[in-house]
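Just curious: can you write a single protein's sequence together with how it folds?
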Amino acid sequence: MSGLTPSQTIGPFFIEGLKWAIEAPERPLAPGTVRIVGRLTDVNGNGAGDALLEIWQPAAQLGEAIPGFQRAATDDDGRFSFRVPAPGANQVTADVTILTRGLQRHVFTRVHIGPEGDPARAVVPTNVPSERRTTLIAKRSGSDPYTFEWNVRLRGTDETVFFDL
């Protein structure tokens, strides 16, 4: 074979291959934890199904309640859910790697919950332009004090901030 060949964009199929390693979204919350729910969307606002989010929280101190590493799958509409420590006097931050069909390489981002759950008090890296910082901040979801919403947009208007690592 000679010449260049196109990159693969149809797979892999993360959910099928990693069923054994994915957090159950219906798992009950342990004391001292909250749930982050959201939706992963493409440039047109369509949900990205069969995507995988890897959540890294090496400083999590809740043992089995919050492992330092979790995997969360998206459903057919791009919805996902994972757990983090409840925000107290300090901010909660988790590093997130996103893998999905159509991406040539995975992307890296972060989610922040401000102290006491206040989005206005969330501290985001200063190298992120001020008009884009809200894409990294989870906000309370309705009246439920244990659920925060954080949506991820892969491209387009309100694209989530991604970091080069």
About this structure: The helical segments are 14-17. The chain has a mean pLDDT of 85. The chain has one domain: 14-153.
